[in-house]
Amino acid sequence: AYDPIHRAALLIRDARSMVLISGAGLSVDAGVKDFRSPSGWWRSIDPRTVATVEALESDYDLFHEFYAARITQLKTVRPHRGHGILAEWEKRGMLACIGTQNVDGLHQAAGSRNVHELHGTIRAFRCHACGAPHAEETFLQKRKCQCGGRLRPNVVLFGEMLPQEAWDAAIAAIRAADAVLVIGTSLQVAPVNQLPFLTRAGRIFINAEETGHEDQFDVFIKGRALDSLAAIQERLELL
Ligand code: APR
């Protein structure tokens, strides 16, 4: 019988250089809003008004309010057991690295070490004008840089280049991968949505909803990340 949990467990058990590509759906089970689900951020806010350089420059108050709200929400958020299972798989040599679109730092908080933050991080801040680093509190207090410039989180805004080192590392990892695990992403944002298809390796997709890309994967598990990872882990222990 076709049991996607079992098929995924077999692929993951035999992998020696598996790469995970994760998106906002993975953090939903920790209480973090995603973007394109019915309850996602972009259902109530036009991303062009908050997640672009143009927004930062033309309406800093709204830009600041959006990121300050997300930073404040994250203060009460902890990684869930699925993040922990992924960190455990890395420790056991089953997961080589993570290329994440998430900026929340939850993979690292759960113990994952080889994490490439392809869309940057909301946990660090800099001056948009001179690039000087600044503390979270300075950003939250809406202070300016000594140079007079405005502060922003180190997230990749729409239209900005991805961090070159993280991108190059993710490309190299995908090219060497013998399995690719994709969790909690609508696969709508380039160039990360191309990564899973740059390798001939076995591809597993775990997502709460169909995205239209399911037929490009060897295994598709329609479900929540937390439940699916727990079910795969349970099956691995039986193999
Ligand atoms: N478990 C698994 N999948 C889930 C869960 C869950 N608990 N909750 C939601 N999902 C799925 C949704 O069905 C959706 O397909 O996760 C996916 C999240 O997709 P998006 O909200 O588009 O998030 P993501 O793909 O990470 O967005 C990519 O877009 O806005 C930019 O820079 C931002 O990094 C982000 C990028």
Automatic annotation (TrEMBL):
Pfam families: SIR2. It comes from the Bacteria. Its EC number is 2.3.1.286. The keyword Cell cycle does not apply. The active site is at H119 (proton acceptor). Residues 1-239 form the Deacetylase sirtuin-type domain. PANTHER family: NAD-DEPENDENT PROTEIN DEACYLASE, NAD-DEPENDENT PROTEIN DEACYLASE SIRTUIN-5, MITOCHONDRIAL-RELATED. The keyword Transferase applies. This is protein acetyllysine N-acetyltransferase. It is an enzyme of class 2 (transferase). Keywords: Metal-binding, NAD, Transferase, Zinc. Zn(2+) binds at C127, C130, C145, C147. InterPro entries: DHS-like_NAD/FAD-binding_dom, NAD-dep_sirtuin_deacylases, Sirtuin, Sirtuin_cat_small_dom_sf, Ssirtuin_cat_dom. The gene is txxe 3138-cobB.
